[in-house]
Every structure is written in structure tokens, then in C-alpha cells.
# Entry
Amino acid sequence: MRRRKSTIVALVGVAVVAGGCGSKPATGAEADKPLVVRLYGSDANMTNSLKDKLTDSPGLLAGMTGTAPLLRLPESFKERLRGVDPSLADYGYAAEAYDAVLLAGLAAESARSTDPETMAKFMVGATTSGTICDGAATCLPLAKAGKDFAYRGVSMRRSGFTDAGEPSSASYGTLHFGRDNTINDNLTEYVGAGDESLASTAPAPPFPAQPSVRKKVPALKVGGLMPHTGRLAYRSAPRFAGARLAVQDLNAAGGVLDQPVEWVDGDDGTDATVAAATVDRFVGLGVQVIVGASSSSVTKAVIPKIVAARKILISPSSTSDELTTVDDNGLFFRTAPPDALQARALADVVMRDGPHRVTIVAREDAYGLGLQKNVKADLVAAGMADAAVELISYPTDTEDFTGVAARVRDNAPDGVLILGYDETALIVKALAVKRVGIAGAFAS
# Structure
């Protein structure tokens, strides 16, 4: 795809053509001049939902670029998701949520059991070797027949899980905001990241023999531990739609262990306390598999409770690298790729644009600080000077970003990466007040 050479600069809706790139902080009269930077984001803020936070600032995000785990989703899959939720504005992590539920069903069928600890032993093997299959209709018959299979579903087309129970490779999209504060899909580019060779080579457990008389086991119950409320609620609709669609597909293919899969709705509130209460409710209802949480910090907080209850937790969107080595007794999995992969994709996007000084602004949680650390390491490894990468963080309950914007302005970068949730809209507004505008190579 050829890049257009036009430049867009947004300063609270006012076009500015003066450049502001530099290698040192502005002082004196220079401090009053507009500073033009390339603005970048990551999966949590590269979403059309930000438009709702910027109704008074049309075009403020024009030129912002970023990455997200993303595939070129088939239109048929999007249409089916809209059949579950006609209000969907985007499809972020819908495929990962779909695959999380499918894998749980396939593991239960392979294990001939809905006991979580027994199912967990079959999760990784369901993705790594054998006949390739891509959905409930093709994979469930193989599992029922005791034949080895490798699930290659919507988000897991490239390779299987690592020994840690997470994707060994993933597809990322490079996204671009247009003039209407929404992502211009026509400009989305796709790139692979990770290493397929890191997929687990451990042999899968042998399939238990089918009994001559099939004993009825408890039906598989899947609980949705994702936010209907809280800071990430604005991003959750696609995940709920993906998970519920997977339940429908498993049941349309005959169910798991000859019984319908049951979906139990829940809320993680983007809050550890809310999530813990929901986990307790799921345990009381006999839920064996929990899909969530959405944020890495909430997922990390509830894993000890999951382990104590001996349940399976599969996150479709928690990406912090800390979760790779968390003490989970083999019960935590994720279909979302770890941030080490996204950091490489982000660093590549930044380096292609050629900035000399970059400020990385991150929320102070497992997601923000972990990704901030990884991106800086990748930028330095790619040739950027260590001193040229400035790090700024803010508490997760921050509402006034005047100080953050002032620090960015003082750093005088030519590139700014924001690793945040919907508060990103407030950060960009604060930057605009400080006369920091967005330079972009794309127009919609």
C-alpha cells in the first residue's frame, strides 16, 4: 500500500502547518509555537468507541496510528457477530473470545469430561498437531472419534499454543484514524508477529476411550468474566458477541458430550473486586470454564481465586507479559497474544516513520507499564538512542491530564505513544490545549 504524502495536524479542530520536531525541549518563544508530533496508540485505544468521548472535538484524532491484534476477518464472520449483537461498532477481540470458547468445548470433548483440571490437560494439544480443523462442525467430530486435531480457528490461523498456553504467533493490524475520529478501514495493514516454531511440541494426552455406555457428565458451563461496566466496558461488546456465537456453534454441532453448552453471563467491572465477586457466583453455579478477564491487571488479580476453585480461566484480551509465567497450576490460558509480540509490531510502526525522540505515556497497571517497557526495549534494539525514549506514567484513576501534557510538551518529542484505555481521549485533548497536534501521513 502506497502512503500518501499529505499531512494532517489537529489542534482542537484548527489546522496548523508549522512543524515542531526537535531534539531538545522548547524554551522561551519556542514554547509558544505549536508542536507537531506523530501520535500512536495500541490495542486498548485504537477503537471507534473513542469517537463517543470526542463529540466536541471532531477530527482531533486524525492521523493517529497504532496496532492491535487483528486479522482480516471474513465478512461472513462479522455478519454472524452482528446477528448476535446488531449494535457492534467494531470487532476487537471478538475472534479471540470465539476461539476461547471453542477450545474449551473441544478440550472437554477430548477429555470426555467437564472437570476443569482434566480438561486443562487437553487445551494446548488441541492446537498443536494432527488434522487441521477450523470450527465446531469440523473439530468436534474428530474429538469425539478420538482423532488428533489442531484447531485453526478465527484468531489462531497461524500456529498453536506455546507450552504456557498462549499464542506462539499472531496477526496485527496497523490502524489509522481518519478525520471523523474513526478508524479508516481502507488503510489498515496486516503484519505477522511471533514465531510459529515456539508452539508446543509436547505430546497431547491420549484420548480416553469412549465407554460402551456413555455416562452422563455435568454439562459444560462457560462464564463470561468481561466488563459490562467499568473502564473497559466500551470495548467489550465484540468479546461478548464472539463468545456467545461460539456457544451457538458448539450447540449447533451437537453440543459437548451430547449436551448443550450453557453460557452464564457476568461482569468483571474492569475491577478486581467486582471480578472476584463474579467468580464466586460462577463457582456457586457450577461453571467450569471462565472466559476473561478483559484487562491484564484484573486477570492477574483473580488467578489465585481461579486456582483455589480449580476452574479454567481463558482470557481473550489480557496481554501483559507477566501472565506468561504467573503461578496458575496449569489452569490459565489466553487466546490473546502476549505484549512482547505487540511491542515489536508497535516499534516497527514507529521506526518506519523515523522519529528521533519518542515519549511513551502509559497507565500504571500491568498492561500499560509492561507494554511501555517492551516498546522502549524494542525501539532501542532497533537503533533509537536510550535517552531519546522518554517514559511517562499516570495512575489509573487520573482524570486531569494537564500535567502529563505539560511533561510531553517539555520533552519536545516528534513521536508520542499513548498506552491507555478510553482516557486516551482526555490525554489527546490535554495535549491539544498545550498546542501539541497530530501529524499524519493519511487522510480519510
